[in-house]
Amino acid sequence: MISETAKLFYPSVEKLVKEIVAVNHAWKVACELFGQDSPLSISSRDLKTCLQVRLLRSYAPEQVYLIEDKESEGEQLYSLRLREPIGNRLYAEHLPMRIAEKVLADKELEKFKKI
After folding, report:
1. 97: left (phi > 0), else alpha (psi -120 to 50), else beta?
2. Per-residue DSSP letters for the chain?
3. CA separation (Å) from 68 to 18, 26, 65, 80, 91?
4. Which of 3, 22, 40, 104 is deepest in the core (most CB within 10 A)?
5. Between 39-59 and 13-34, two packed helices, what is the crossing angle to 10 degrees?
6. Ramachandran region, residue 79 (left: φ > 0; alpha: ψ -120 to 50; beta: rest)
7. Strand pairing class (77-86; 89-96)
């Protein structure tokens, strides 16, 4: 049986994906209500990035990988693609390439891209 502490420090891929989706929605609402530069918006955005990095470092490339979103307009984005759907989700939201290049080492980026 997994202890509560282990669940907290080593969340499942399913839990991380649910958290990423929830924080992403909260970030979008915060931007609409308070603006992109509000402390809540910035904190939500940064938390989403942290959770995505944690998901990649814990579960890539076996369960999740980075793939360029060719359909996005404007800023270049990666999608965090799930190898198996979680609920009805195939992605754990988007991560701007400029952010990925800033927070991930080059070796990590190569490892996390689709193989």
Report:
1. alpha
2. ---HHHHHHS--HHHHHHHHHHHHHHHHHHHHHH-TTSHHHHHHHHHHHHHHHHHHHHHTTTTEEEEE-TT--SS-EEEEEEEEEETTEEEEEEEEHHHHHHHS-HHHHHHHB--
3. 21, 24, 10, 9, 12
4. 104
5. 160
6. beta
7. antiparallel
Cβ atoms of 114 and 67 within 8 Å: the answer is yes
Q: How confident is the model at residue 115 (pLDDT cuts 50, 70, 90)?
A: low
The reply to whether the predicted model has a pTM over 0.85 is yes
Residue spans of the domains in the chain: they are 11-112
